[in-house]
Design a protein that fits this description.
six-stranded antiparallel beta sheet, seven-stranded mixed beta sheet, alpha+beta, single chain, 24% strand, 433 residues
Length: 433
């Protein structure tokens, strides 16, 4: 095993590979145990394997750490990771803590932790990268940074207590919303709520959309009404409607009154439809252009970075007005078809017609239409054939999958893809002392 010093903040998200080079998963955290007279000892890694299952990999099963990757022996116990008493997760619990220097030179906040293999062959915490408090009144100034050994500092809190969430958020800044949602749910409740309180509204909205309803409600209840309304404003209207539908009627109505009027109007419209109909599944903000618009205009519209791929797969062409509910739907133009025509071509001349559903069409029928015509999205119209929304394939998948498909318990049923070699559970259990 290499003896390279590794900073845990940089290790998060690195690939984990078996001896032949096949990817096993990704590092999500490092687990340490405290010792009386020495720095904390590394006992293993928390690794996310396919199916979003998080497992414990004993440090004894790691043959190499470094160069942005981790190599294992190939033997992994796929039993779900459960933190034991005395164990501390570096990213989830240590980063962001306040420490005091034993020489009484002041306090600092831990921004990263370095682990290293010592002469005895044990991996342990070797250094802390810390930041001192700033001394300037300027809002742009930051305190000085330095490295400190474990013996040079003392923690101000007990192991496991939450501390500043700011540094944890910075560590997880590159995570996709679904991965961040799983990461937050793995944290102790107080720590999770502290991080939630520091997340920007739009980032938290993306994360909430990836949680099961019970977890959404717990987070929403902890936000307070005004912050909850701001987060709902940033959620997709269909996701916000699904969440509000789970609340008591008076509480849901109160949040709607606190939301921005335009966002609340979209949510109210969706709540009026049955949850298993096209109207209940749809997103009320389709891409709409006139028949006179050109291919170049349509391609510029779908290039917007905030659009989900499924939503950007096609542009709806209608008569005026062009805001939902629009004038009569004329047809849709898929982006792949746009690529086959010159930029000046009018959308009205390359329409696909007859590919729409009514607001009261059942979810099952919508699914059959998407599958039959190999569609990524399908427009939804009202009784006057005015466009009111679009159902995308991810809306349908959310409806078809079990209610708890995002939860860890559902991973066992949804687990697909390559499975790491399973070791005898007693082998690794014996190494976690």
């Amino acid at each position: 095993m290499t003896s390279t010093r590794v900073f845990v903040g940089r290790l998060a998200g690195c690939g984990v590979f078996d001896p032949v080079g096949d990817r096993v998963g990704r590092v999500r955290d490092v687990v340490v145990v405290y010792r009386k007279s020495s720095s904390p000892r590394v006992v293993g890694l928390v690794v996310e394997i396919p199916g979003r299952r998080r497992v414990f990999v004993s440090i004894g099963r790691i043959t190499s750490i470094g160069s942005g990757q981790v190599i294992t022996t190939g033997l992994i116990n796929v039993r779900r990771f459960e933190q034991r008493g005395g164990e501390v997760r570096v990213i989830a619990e240590m980063i962001g803590r306040t420490v005091s220097f034993v020489n009484r030179s002041g306090d600092a906040v831990v921004e990263d932790v370095a682990v290293e293999k010592n002469r005895a062959g044990t991996w342990e915490v070797s250094q802390l990268f810390v930041r001192r408090p700033k001394h300037s009144a300027s809002p742009f100034s930051r305190g000085s940074t330095e490295f400190a050994t474990w013996q040079e500092v003392r923690e101000q809190i007990r192991a496991g207590e939450n501390q500043s969430a700011e540094h944890l958020i910075a560590t997880y800044s590159d995570l996709k919303p679904a991965d961040l949602a799983n990461t937050l749910l793995d944290l102790p409740r107080e720590r999770m709520l502290a991080v939630v309180g520091e997340l920007p509204d739009n980032r938290l909205a993306d994360v909430l959309e990836e949680m099961v309803e019970s977890d959404q409600l717990e987070v929403l209840a902890a936000l307070g009404d005004n912050r909850a309304a701001d987060v709902l404003d940033n959620m997709q209207a269909d996701d916000a409607a699904d969440l509000i539908a789970q609340l008591p009627e008076d509480e849901g109505e109160h949040l709607l009154t606190l939301m921005e009027p335009e966002e609340a109007e979209d949510v109210r419209m969706l709540l009026a439809y049955g949850h298993d109909t096209a109207g209940g599944l749809m997103s009320p903000d389709p891409l709409v252009l006139s028949a006179e618009a050109t291919v170049a205009e349509a391609l510029a519209l779908i290039r917007k970075h905030e659009l989900a791929p499924a939503m950007a797969a096609a542009v709806c062409v209608t008569l005026p007005p062009y805001e939902t509910p629009t004038g009569r739907l004329l047809g849709i133009v898929h982006f792949q078809r746009m690529l086959r025509y010159p930029p000046h071509e009018r959308l009205g001349s390359i329409l696909d017609e007859g590919l729409e559903v009514q607001v009261d069409t059942s979810a099952a029928e919508v699914t059959r239409i998407l599958a039959s015509y190999n569609l990524v999205s399908v427009p939804v119209v009202n009784g006057e054939d005015g466009l009111v929304g679009v159902v995308t394939v991810d809306d349908v998948l959310d409806h078809l999958l079990p209610d708890d498909w995002r939860s860890h318990e559902a991973d066992d049923d949804l687990h697909t893809g390559p499975t790491p070699t399973i070791s005898d559970p007693t082998l690794e259990e014996g190494e976690r002392v």
